[in-house]
Structure formats: C-alpha cells, structure tokens
Specification:
The protein has 19 helices and no strands. The protein is mostly helical. Helix 9 runs antiparallel to helix 14. The longest helix has about 50 residues.
C-alpha cells in the first residue's frame, strides 16, 4: 500500500494554501468570497448563540447575587442548604447532555434551542416566587434539566460551520457570554437592589423574575434568530451553501463519521481523547463555577456592602473577557492549543495561592487575586472546549464528544458547589485548596492530551494507521482516518 501523505494535516492546509495564492484573478475573487461568507456566518450564527448562553449562565449563577440580597434569610436556609440548592442543578444537567445532543441532530437547532430557552426561563421566574428551600431546589432541578442542551448544542452547531483553525476564536466569542453574564448579573443585581418592596417582593425575588422574563422573551425570538445546519440554513444562498460545504469537506477530507452504527459507536466509546478532554474540562470548569457562585459572597466578606460587592464583580469579568479573546486570537493564529491551557492555569494558580495566604495580605491584593483566578480560568476553559472539538471529525462524533465533555465535565461544578463552607468564611481554605487541586488535574490532562496527540500524528506520518483503510467501516472512520492530523 502506498504511504498516505498528510494532505489533510491540521484541518485542510492544502485548501488554505490554495486560497492564499493570488496568481489569478479568479483565486482572488474566491478568497474575497470566502471572507464574505465567513462574515455572514459570524453575523447570523454567533450573536443568537451568545445571547442564549449569556442568559443560561446568568440564570444558573444569579443565585449567588440573590444570596447576599436576603434570599437565605427569607427562605430560612441554614447549614448546607445553599450548597444543596447549587449542586442539585448539576444532576439533571449532567445526565441529559448527551441525549440532548442526539435530539438536536434529528430536529432543527432553532426549534430545540429556542424551546429549552423558554422553558428554563420559566424555571428561573419560578425561583422568584418560592417560599421554601424545597421550592428553590425543585426550580433548580428544572433549570438544570432544561439548560442541559445549551452548551453542547451550541458548540456542536459552531463546529459544523467553520474549519478547525477558525473555531477557537468563535468558540471564545461564544464563551465570553458566560464571562459577561457574571459582570452583567452583578450590574443588574446592583440596580435591582433598589426594587426592594416593589409589588410586595424582596429585591432578590426581582433578580429571578426579571432575568427569567428576559430569557423567555429572547427564547421566543430565537426560534427565528438561530440558524439551522449549513445544509438547510435559510440565510445562505445556493452558491454560498455550496462554498461552505466545500470548505468543510476540504477541512475534514475523508475523515467522516456520518452514520452512528455499532462500529462507529465503539470507536466513540473507545476514544481516549474524549476522556482526557472531559477530565481537563472538569478541572477548569470548577474554577468558573467557584467564582460565579461565591465571588459576591467573598467580596461581601472582605468588608464590602452587598451593593458594593455586586458592582465590584464587574471589573473582574471585564478583564477576564479581554484575556479570553486575546488568547483565543493567538491560539488560532499560532494553530496551537496546549501552551494556552497551561498559561491560564498558571495565572489562576497564583490567584489561589494568594487567597490561601490572605491573612497577611491587604484587601486590595485579595481583590487582585480574584482577577487572576477568573481571568486565568477563562483563558483556559474555552481553549479546552475548542481543542477537543478540533480533534473530532464527523457529525455524530462531534455531537457526542461535545455533550460528554460538557456534561460529565460539569462534575467540576458539582464539586465547586460543595467545598465552600460557611464555617470557614472568610478564608475558605477547603474551597480554595480543592479548586487549586482541580486546575492541577486540568494541567495534567492537557499535558497527557498534548503528548499523546503528538505521538499519534507521528505514527500517522509513518503510515502506521494506513491499515484502517482496509476495514469494513473505512468510509466512516471519523478522525481515526489515517489522513487526519490532530491539533496540538
């Protein structure tokens, strides 16, 4: 058998190089048309997905803002009641990630994503009317059930419109919605703090009611705002659709997995990349949830009043947004992922060490540590998501891998919900120590992923995987195809 040259190395460089040649007027026109097509996809795809992810993250974490506005006292929450209300969200959220992404493959993304947005918005509104801790827990369970499909569904949809080295920037734009949700939630909570007593409701209730109503309205709009798959997207003309599908085919080459039969299911189940990517995400997502759930409380216990604590969360998330987008731009530009995951982990590590030594530090330094923790985490978190997506090829494999990574990975959120104990305030030694350990786990998983992917690419360069082309499912190998090269 002839040696297979790495024509498809790093997501269709052969096609990119051809597009960059400018010897003929026709090629220049093609390049301009491609740029125009990408801009059109960006404007139609990214804004609605950013909007619903922004709302989903705000609605799952606004309980942190409600807490310091009097929720725990009004609902007579004691001991671990607050922690329980946090972690019950993750039970249905983890369980229903994969089923949700199998559903979205079979029906239109616009219908599925808009429907679950409306339903979790209703759940959020319900939290504003509960009169007991049990009622709050029930609403949080429903919230986790309906939100389960958002992140994996959106990541899956983004990955089906762009080539691999165009994904990270878009993924980070999408992910910035979570960061900005933290800032906006603090700003909104600060404003809503003045509504105490309006209509006979406490200000913390208005946080849930108003933010839930906003979610319901946007969810209805998204039925016509979110585009469907590239093959059926209404915003594309026939020529644009043909160009987009051609670009995607050049990116994946023969590495397709468009049929989920028994052999394909076994390949997915045995794929070590999915497990390492999930462990990495579990380690870093803990950091994001720890910040969102507890930063308002941490600031409050630094001596800031509730309103001042809410407003001081905003600069933390603004800086994190800048770091997130800057690292994403460089990661795509350099066509590299691993170093950026370690960079974010290193920054966050310094922040946790500072907080663990906070007894000898001023309030200003402790506040600065929050910038490091949140900013470092959001350098790494979207890169981990984009990196695993880059290593997958085929509709079903991308769908399942995204759902598993986000679903199982959110065990990190479950951990974050249960390690910040009121009795340890304001030092939270357990919370900071466990969070530091979790990002160390992320670093180990990312390092293993980098080493193993590099080794696998070298094996394919030597032709050691060419035998797969003789197997019965050679047409449905996905990224197991010997011509595919992995992003490192």
């Amino acid at each position: 058998m002839a040696m297979h040259t790495p024509a498809k190395i790093e997501g269709g460089l052969e096609h990119v190089e051809k597009s960059e040649k400018t010897q003929t007027g026709e090629t220049a026109i093609d390049l301009a048309a491609e740029k125009q097509l990408l801009r059109k996809c960006d404007w139609h795809l990214i804004p609605p997905l950013v909007a619903i992810y922004f709302l989903s993250f705000m609605d799952r974490t606004n309980i942190g803002n409600a807490r310091i506005q009097g929720m725990t006292a009004d609902l007579n929450m004691q001991g671990a009641d607050y922690n329980i209300a946090l972690f019950v969200f993750f039970i249905p959220y983890i369980i229903f990630e994969v089923p949700s992404n199998l559903v979205i493959k079979r029906i239109s993304p616009s219908l599925w994503l808009s429907s679950i947005t409306v339903l979790w918005g209703i759940s959020t509104i319900g939290m504003g009317f509960v009169n007991s801790n049990g009622g709050l827990i029930a609403c949080r369970l429903l919230l986790g059930f309906f939100e389960a499909g958002i992140v994996p569904g959106c990541i899956y949809l983004i990955s089906m419109y762009y080539q691999r080295y165009e994904v990270q920037w878009r993924m980070s734009l999408f992910f910035c919605a979570a960061i900005l949700a933290g800032a906006f939630s603090g700003l909104l909570a600060y404003a809503i703090g003045n509504m105490h007593g309006v209509g006979g409701y406490s200000s913390w209730r208005w946080i849930f009611i108003l933010e839930g109503l906003l979610t319901v309205v946007i969810g209805i709009v998204c039925r016509w705002w979110i585009p469907d798959w590239p093959e059926t997207a209404g915003f594309l003309s026939d020529s644009e659709r043909a160009m987009l599908i051609s670009r995607l085919a050049a990116d994946s080459g023969d590495a397709k997995m468009d049929h989920l039969d028994k052999r394909a299911a076994r390949r997915v189940a045995k794929d070590w990349k999915i497990y390492l990517g999930t462990i990495a995400y579990m380690g870093i997502v803990n950091n994001g949830y720890a910040g969102s759930f507890f930063i308002p409380t941490i600031l409050n216990q630094m001596g800031f009043k509730a309103a001042d604590a809410q407003i001081r969360t905003i600069p933390v998330y603004v800086v994190a947004t800048v770091l997130c987008l800057g690292s994403a731009w460089l990661a795509d530009r350099l066509r590299h992922r691993f170093a950026f995951t370690l960079l974010g982990i290193a920054v966050a590590t310094v922040g946790y060490i500072l907080l663990l030594c906070q007894n000898s530090l001023s309030v200003g330094v402790r506040y600065f540590a929050l910038f490091l923790i949140v900013g470092g985490g959001y350098i790494t978190q979207p890169v981990v998501l984009g990196w695993l997506s880059n290593t997958m090829s085929g509709h079903y494999k991308r769908s399942i891998s995204a759902a598993v990574q986000v679903g199982v990975g959110n065990v990190g959120g479950f951990v974050a919900s249960n390690v910040f104990f009121d009795r340890e305030a304001p030092r939270y030694v357990t919370g900071y120590s466990v969070s530091l350990g979790m990002i160390a786990i992320c670093a180990i998983a990312c390092t293993a992923l980098y080493v193993l992917l590099s080794m696998e690419n070298k094996k394919r360069d030597r032709g050691e995987r060419d035998h797969r082309l003789q197997e019965p499912d050679a047409h449905n190998l996905g990224d197991d195809h010997p011509d595919w090269r992995y992003t490192t």
